[in-house]
Amino acid sequence: MMLFILVLFIYPFLINGDIDLMKITNHTVHTTIRHRYARTVITTLVNNSDCIPREFPFFIALPEDAMITEFSVYKSGSLIKTRVEDTGLAEEETIIKPNGLKGYYILDLISIDSKGFENYVTVSPNSTVTIQIIYEQLLKKKLDVYDHILNLNFNQSTIKDLQITVNIEDVCDIIFLRVSRRARTNFSSPEYQSINVFGTNKTKTITWKPTIIEQEEMANKNLNAQFIVQYSVDNDYRPNLILYNDEYFLHFFSPSNLEKFRVHTTFVLDGSGSMGIGKIKHVKQAMHNILHEMRPQDYFSIVIFSNDIKVLMMNADDSKIKLEDFLNINYNSKNIILGFEANEYNVQQIDHLLDIVPQGYTNIGDALMASNQIAESVKLRLNFPKDEIKSIVVLICDGTPNYGKFKDDPFFETKKNSPIFGLGYGNEDEKIHFLNKITLSNHGYSKKIDEKLDNDLQIQNFYKEVSTPVLSDIYFKYINKKELKDGLSKKSFDLYFKGSELIISGKLIDSKEEFNCTINAHSKHGPYSGPGFTDFFYISRDNDEFNLLRKLWAYIHITEMLTKHTITQDTKEKNYLKSLIIKYAIENSFLTPFTSLVLSWPDHPNALIQTEKLFKNFINYATLPKWKKVLLYEMKKTIHHRTSIETINSSPLNPKLRATYYALRSHSTIVEKYSITTND
């Protein structure tokens, strides 16, 4: 009896395990950035020093626009690699077929601060497993800088051997480089002896091998930090650059020395109850800083929404700005002013008007319609020439519409071409999807606010990105003696922002036939036809970068088609886009919302065994041959929904068998499946 009580007492510890028994002993990250395209290889060694199998929660936080290309595990002398397949077909192929056993597993993405990849890997007793994941990402230029951020997320405070290496290669000279690390609660100085930088004008290598002391400084209980590489290239030398080989080309367009348009910004601010006092405080502080930094020749309007829609307005008679219910305003009246110069007098009046008390529901749809009407009213009142001023909308919110006439279908498009740029609080999929769709449908884009970092600064930096248009209505036309193949990416753009970059990719019929590009756009001073020359850079077939252009072409096309799939309402078009995304993803090994990483193992001629018969052998698991263990795993997944954990716990199985069952429990990973096939 005492023995039984002792087993009951220690059993939870056998199942959950002491964290010291399962540790990462080595973690290396190696990124190669060629022509602004980053390929990151992460390799993790995990050691289980316990006498029973244990699950390791392998987790990687990825940049939002990164695409996983490979996941592999090396254990028990065998390398297990994945391939990309259509998710629908992969799900069907998990069925046990009469002609043998074919096993597949689908690896899913989850959402976190950016987005994450999580899998549970079963590690055998007293053994080490090597896990590797590879992802790729086209870096975006914002405010003249490319950011490459590597996330470190571990359930332990230190790692014995931790190293990060970043190699940068570019056709242009690298004229600025900054390397820093950041804990989740504060910025840290980049001045550490463990960070080394060396290279030439066009290449840089950064290595970081933090000491245990440095890791302890960054960690609280767990090590949760970021390693950030920021760099700029000399676009003044090559502002209009085309890389090409025998099949593909890649066009980087990043002119400088262009004058900004005047900008009218309508800020649409969430004042609903879900924002809470804390978020409202950050928004108010950010708005204070933004308004005080705006150029006097620019204009602003403010919309605050909860149940009702309130806007800043002024009667032409009294020159006093006040907050009024939008429904009570005749916005077509010549006496009503809804857009204000960002001069010192107007800005100083605003602070007390932004005393927002969070309350009520989230009426985003009506607020955005109001912003559209305000933009038109301001445009008519100011009567500037067409290319003198541009209107944008900046939406800051933390939810989806739950009030107003657009709560059921808020995905309208603005009719007057005012792009919407959104900043959102929260990581819920529904919120993220809404903000993406509403901004992409209206010629803009969105970002999430990381509440663990400086909220005010994130809002201010986002505004700097979207408030500097220098070109509008940009159109690229590619001229070739033989027409270009189908496969040209997006070639027309509504706005080009100072310090950003436009990228176009396409296929060539014959690279030996000369081709060129003409550019048509509008600047503040009239028509614009480009910087005057195009710089061509040929990549030969012998160059190891030859296949890079093919990957970039596929990456850009998949990204654009995912955007179109998000915003289109046409079912036929959605299905067509989905089929193309799957095609390009499989051909180029990209994990997308419609593809999966799957793994197969050889058929076994005697694999067809009845589930009930195999279940009877469960208690003799240790004596089963490998192929039966695999089938057992498939069976276990099938019965998992019928057999509760409580049933297993109350069954007359010994604690060791229960521990085995928990070690075998599916946490969405093929690695567990493989581990039970290699541990005879």
What is the CATH architecture descriptor of the largest domain?
A: Sandwich
CATH top-level class of the largest domain:
Mainly Beta
Question: In what range is the share of β-strand residues?
Answer: 25-35%
Sketch the major β-sheet. Answer: 9 strands, mixed
Explain this structure to me?
This protein has 680 residues and is an alpha+beta fold. Strand 4 (67-75) and strand 5 form a beta hairpin. It contains 15 helices and 34 strands. Mean pLDDT is 76; it is low at 1-18, 92-113, 185-191, 600-622 and 634-680. The radius of gyration is 29 Å and the shape is globular. Strands 19, 20, 21, 22, 23, 24, 25, 26 and 27 form a nine-stranded mixed β-sheet that branches. The protein has four domains: 13-233, Immunoglobulin-like (Sandwich); 240-258 and 470-597, no CATH class; 262-467, 3-Layer(aba) Sandwich (Rossmann fold), CATH 3.40.50.410; 610-675. Helices cover 26% and strands 34% of the residues.
